[in-house]
Amino acid sequence: MTGLLHRVGETQRRAVRIRVDGAEVSALEGDTLLVALLTSGARLRESEFGDGPRAGFCLMGACQDCWVWTEDGGRLRACSTPVAEGMRVVTRGAPWPAP
Amino acid sequence: MTRADVIIVGGGLMGAATALFLRQRGVSVILLERDLVGSHASGTNFGNVRRQGRFLPQLPLANRSREIWGRLPEVIGEDAEFLPSGHLRVAFSDAAIGKLEAYARDARPYGLELELITGNALRARFPFLSPEARMASYSPLDGHANPRLAAPAFARAARRAGAEVQERTEVLSIAKSAEDFLVETPAGTFRAPILQVSSGAWGGRMAEAFGEPVPITPRGPQMGVTEPVPYRIAPVLGVASDVTEEGVYLRQVERGNIVFGGGLRSEASLDTKRARLDPVNTLRQLPYLARLLPAVRALSVIRTWSGVEGYMRDDIPVMGPSAKVPGLFYAFGFCGHGFQLGPGVGATMAELIATGSPGVPIDPFLISRFAASEGDPR
Amino acid sequence: MAGPVIVVGAGPAGIRAAERLVEAGLRPVLIEESARDGGQIYRRQPEGFTRPHEALYGSEAAKARALHAAAEALRPRVDWRPETLVWAARDNALLVNAAGRSESLPYAALILATGATDRVMPLPGWTLPGVTTLGGAQIALKAQACTIGARPVFLGTGPLLYLVAWQYLKAGAAVQAVLDTSPFMKRVEALPWMLARPGLVVRGWTYTRDLQKAGVRIATGIMPVAIEGDDRAAAVRWRDATGQDHRTECDAVGIGYGLRSETQLADLARCAFAFDAGARQWLPVADEDGRAGVPGVYLAGDGAQVRGADAAELAGRLAACAALRDLGTAVDEIEMVTLRRRLAPMTRFRRGLERAFPWPANLAAALPDEALVCRCEAITAGTLRRAGGEYGAPEVNRAKAFSRTGMGRCQGRMCGLAAAEVLAAARGEPIEAVGRLRGAAPVKPLPVATEAAP
């Protein structure tokens, strides 16, 4: 499946590798975590109330719809968190309490 | 209708429940609420349906109330999200362990069976608890409910049963004629031979107007809620401690959010009708919440709130007939622990008003206890 | 009152306010939630990105460059606090959270320049992946060099609708349609107000013309019906002005109906609010210079009233003048008179925008019962209507208590205005009768792991 977001420039940046749902994903330095996840995928998380996947909305820290889970049960607001090498994120389920 | 058998001033959970149970006894009722039913202490509290830890002589009333909570759909047509998922009081110190043991022993004669759990058994049954937890007192039939829903649901049920419920109707003055109380409001004058004051933190002003001042202080609870996470924490958790700051509690609602409160309280104003949460108190709660339930540390608080509660000097409510004015009854000042009692208070006040006998012992709560003390009770 | 002057928000209003305070010899605290100054309109791209200002801000490049330069010059002369969230307010102090630590900052004066975000009307499917706000679509492009899709539809109303569509066109996206709920005639009727800023009117026409030349379908006076898709947006269903139904396939949707002020902090700082009939929302009350009713609190920029970035720069400076004067520093009246005079046409233009691109309040009544209104808590219009009907909630806070609408992570920021419309329509009452959601701390989520500074 293609990602939701499409890069239209600034592609000469250094690659950053992260893991999303156990699979390696490549992003670019300077990406927000939201962009890193949505250029390769089409979801950030599941609604807690069973109404389907979510992929953020405002992209500027207002709507709080893009909070993602890290594998170890941490929380990150994807639109305002810069991606970093080695991040491990899950977009399905919620690892709480932490395993 | 401007005349009824009973006028209830104050549409919190106490007033709304009393109205319903009076109607069930065939008594006509007018319920007057200044704001909206359940908008202050009744609607902003933690939502604990907890018996353990209460003042022991209050347990018969709490038991009566618990029985009503268990059949809310039959009584009011909805469950107000009541979840009898158990209640744990958790001890982190020797002193607290001693108190849990003593309370479990002393509560048994009142019909409240508590299970004391320690060590590996505690971790096996409640693996989410802090490893620092040394003992927990488990009350399996206690639980929690949604305070935003309960009082309005009782008021709707009362209305369906024939009570007149007047919201946004502030009482301007109360006079007593030979046979009736005359209650003046912007919506007109209401009259009844019997009057119940169940106006929470504002009850003190009304009692004083009837010549029965009581030592009551308005305070605001410091409540908060986290983002939703998978539903894993069935029982309500509370810290057993005499240190105010440590005394936090939390519950997870089935939708997933974790509601919390406890610790210090903030100022509240009877005049502005608001209690503003002090965000510094929220910060103080956080480490104690994380000690109780370490997994909460990963989450974020998304909302906080407070409300105006009435605290009596002796930390127990005013309930029962006036010592001075015939036909006048009180049920207010529940000191932040009235939510569980609400349905039972309604049933008890209705029985008292309709039959002259409360059905469960309420002697410790009579307003006459302050008249007996020397000097200015405040 | 002790302490410094605190400016919250380092966008156009906040930067110009801080600059004026520095000119007066003060060292204000300048707090910004994000990592970089500039705000949203002049949002900066991250370090290491190379596009020039002209590529990022188009016709506004010079203004952006000037503002960024001003901010950089200020850096050593203010207490600059980026990546800092003001999460609560108490008596003449703010509680700020940075790097997991919360501290209390007392202030002698507080200038709130908190900006605005998109005003949104829900529709079925608006929570699907691929749907963003118009502002979000623009941020993706500006700050991250990404489009929200290769074949987007832009839906809503207001100048941003056309600007974003035009920017996407220039970025190479195959814009499928621009769907505007406002009938074209409204624009004509609003011209007397809009012509207070003729340059902006001309620029708006240019965007429309460019889009039309490129063959982009532009439809006005439409009614949105739903966004469709399995797990991601795939089409927009809408009804044209003649009542005919359409289905436009796409891979992304940007939606927005103008902007709404971010007013939570003003609320927590105890500012009074009043209903603004033109904006059809409750706004914090302030005098012409930005003085809120609360002594020591000032409001500037889109967080006070949405007049755009140019006005925000002037209003920020004006609010700083007012604060200085109230603190006992002499301010030349000519400076303040000039600022006020320059702001006047911008206020008039704002009223024109409200007429040309009205918030489509009527859509709230048409929202199907099963549509989500509150995306945080997944609360449907039907549940909200039941709170107002069967449960009798006469105003939004009561409806929130019964239904959980506006109770989630965003605190009603996204759905609050629409929820009020749904409630008012369900009760058959005017919008002002159902009130506004009261603000509560934290302004944004506060991690439980936050430590309190001693």
In short:
With 99 residues, chain A is mostly beta strands.
Name the descriptors.
heterotrimer, B: 378 residues, alpha+beta, FAD/NAD(P)-binding domain, D-Amino Acid Oxidase, Chain A, domain 2, eight-stranded mixed sheet, six-stranded mixed sheet, 11 helices, globular, C: 454 residues, alpha/beta, Arc Repressor Mutant, subunit A, 3 domains, five-stranded parallel sheet, 15 helices, 25 strands, 35% helix
What do these coordinates show?
The complex is a heterotrimer of chains A (99), B (378) and C (454). Chain A has 99 residues and is mainly beta. In chain A, 6% of the residues lie in helices and 28% in strands. Chain A contains 1 helix and 8 strands; from the N terminus they run βββαβββββ. In chain A, a hairpin with a 6-residue loop joins strand 4 (45-46) and strand 5. The longest helix of chain A is centred in the middle third of the chain and has 6 residues, at 33-38. The radius of gyration of chain A is 13 Å and the shape is globular. The mean pLDDT of chain A is 96. By secondary structure, chain B is of the alpha+beta class. Chain B has 2 domains: 6-47 and 147-217 and 312-371, FAD/NAD(P)-binding domain (3-Layer(bba) Sandwich), CATH 3.50.50; 87-140 and 222-306, 2-Layer Sandwich (D-Amino Acid Oxidase, Chain A, domain 2), CATH 3.30.9. Chain B contains 11 helices and 22 strands. Chain B has helices spanning 13-24, 41-44, 59-69, 72-76, 94-107, 119-125, 147-160, 203-209, 279-292, 342-355, 368-371; strands at 6-9, 29-32, 48-49, 87-91, 115-118, 135-139, 143-144, 164-166, 173-176, 181-185, 188-192, 194-197, 216-220, 223-226, 236-240, 248-252, 258-262, 266-267, 300-305, 309-312, 318-321, 328-332. In chain B, a hairpin with a 4-residue loop joins strand 9 (173-176) and strand 10. Chain C is of the alpha/beta class and 454 residues long. Chain C folds into 3 domains: 5-117 and 260-353, 3-Layer(bba) Sandwich (FAD/NAD(P)-binding domain), CATH 3.50.50.60; 120-257, FAD/NAD(P)-binding domain; 362-434, Arc Repressor Mutant, subunit A, CATH 1.10.10. Chain C contains 15 helices and 25 strands. In chain C, the strands form 7 sheets. Chain C has a 5-stranded parallel β-sheet, covered by helices on one side. Chain C has a 5-stranded parallel β-sheet with strand order 9-17-11-12-13. In chain C, helix 4 packs parallel to helix 5 and helix 13 crosses helix 14 (396-403). Strand 19 (300-305) of chain B pairs antiparallel with strand 24 of chain C, so a sheet runs across the interface.
